[in-house]
Specification:
Layout lengths: L1 H8 L5 E6 L2 E6 L9 H6 L4 H10 L5 H5 L1 E4 L4 E4 L15 E2 L4 E7 L2 E6 L4 E6 L6 E2 L4 E6 L5
Antiparallel strand pairs: 1-2, 3-10, 4-6, 4-9, 5-8, 6-7, 8-10
Length: about 150
């Protein structure tokens, strides 16, 4: 656990989540109020529920933005869209997903970290490929509202 804290302290990560043998450790660095660049502030906005709520409340927001939800990478690493080679992907375009469902894993320092949905919806786009290197804050999957069938 100390190694994870030291790793985060030595990096510019804003959030890190590790799962191992049935337990999960989630470290979140508080958002900085004054930054020299707008990019770090944007990538640190991982909790998408508040961002979605504020977008819905803003009258100037486009309707598509108010209903879409981006699932972002919580850390830098290699993305895997399926549990093992040859298996079905966790999600595909058109799939309905529930809150808490795994959409992919990110391998960082030989640890596979699950990335889960924060809300239910339908997968509109998968923006990464298995084996791709991703950075914290990068959009992995785009969700829309669940279509009534």
């Amino acid at each position: 656990m100390k190694a994870a804290i030291d790793t985060m302290a030595a990096s510019d990560l804003h959030e890190m989540e590790l799962s191992h043998e049935g337990w999960t450790l989630r470290l979140v660095r508080p958002a900085r109020q004054a930054t020299g660049s707008a990019a770090p502030a944007t990538s640190s906005a991982r909790p998408a529920a508040p961002r979605t709520a504020s977008a819905a409340a803003a009258p100037s927001a486009r309707p598509a933005e108010a209903t879409q939800h981006d699932i972002q990478a919580p850390m830098h690493g290699i993305v895997h869209l399926q549990a093992a080679p040859g298996q079905a992907p966790f999600v595909a375009v058109g799939d309905k997903v529930e809150a808490g469902q795994v959409v992919c894993t990110i391998e960082a320092m030989k640890v596979f970290n699950e990335v889960r949905c924060e809300r239910a919806g339908q997968v509109l786009a998968v923006r990464v490929a298995t084996g791709a290197e991703v950075e914290a804050g990068q959009v992995l999957v785009v969700l829309g509202p669940q279509a009534d069938v």
